[in-house]
Design brief:
Keywords: Signal. It is built from six helices and no strands. By secondary structure, it is mainly α. Helix 3 runs antiparallel to helix 5.
Length: about 160
């Protein structure tokens, strides 16, 4: 069996085993489970080799940290976060801490994605780096569907 087939088999097995957990879990445990599932999903969808995955995920973790911070600030995060965003704002965008400029947040998010697409490309190539953002959205949609199924199942119990 080739390395890629082994990696895909491991990713699928992890994905199925993680989704089959139905016991109550803490918020931290649920977050860790979802993160593991996301890693398996990204690995499978981008066909990452073990060597690529080892290089890709530290870059991804930094991207995730920065994009999460930005989204937190957009939702009205701390003043520190707003000051941080202001210090990094793009030329021509104004951001009043009391009046969130949606376009400034969108522009910053786009800029981050462009920066990280280049960083991802240095590890996995242009095509898979661009595909990453589609895969990320596919995973979010997968999570939303799972949530809807679980809510529907609870209603019918």
């Amino acid at each position: 069996m080739t390395v890629i087939k082994q990696l895909n088999l491991i990713a699928i097995t992890l994905l199925l085993s993680v989704t089959s957990l139905t016991a109550q879990e803490s918020r931290a445990q649920r977050f860790e489970r979802i993160e593991a599932e996301k890693i398996a999903f990204i690995t499978k969808e981008l066909n990452l080799t073990p060597q690529e995955a080892q290089k890709f995920f530290p870059v991804y973790n930094q991207y995730y940290k920065e994009i999460s911070t930005l989204k937190h600030e957009r939702r009205g995060g701390s003043l520190k976060g707003q000051q941080n965003l202001q210090s990094q704002r793009l030329p021509g965008n104004t951001l009043n801490p009391n009046n969130h400029d949606v376009l400034a947040f969108d522009a910053k998010e786009l800029e981050l994605k462009k920066i990280y697409r280049k960083r991802f490309a240095s590890v996995v190539g242009e095509a898979r780096a661009s595909r990453f953002f589609e895969v990320e959205e596919e995973f979010r949609n997968y999570l939303l569907r799972e949530l809807q199924y679980r809510r529907r199942d609870k209603e019918h119990e």
